[in-house]
Amino acid sequence: MEVKQVLDAKGLACPMPIVRTKKAINELQTGEVLEIHATDKGAKNDLTAWAKSGGHTLLQHTEENGIFKFWIQKG
Length: 75
Hints:
single chain; alpha+beta; Translation Initiation Factor IF3; four-stranded mixed beta sheet; 29% helix; globular; TusA-like_sf; TusA-like
C-alpha cells in the first residue's frame, strides 16, 4: 500500500487526533492513503466511526507498543 502522508498524532487526546486527521485527509486526493499514528486509546473507535461517516475506508489498523496505527483511504 502506498502511503501519501503520515500524520503523527501521538500524545494528543480526543478530539485532536480526529481534528488533525480531518485536516490532513482534506489535503489528499481521492484514493490516496493517510497513515495515522496515535496513542489515545479512544482513537480506534473514533477514527473507525469517522472514516465510515465521512465516506473514507479504514484499510488497516494495528497496535504496537501502545502506538495505534491506522491507514485510511480517502473516499
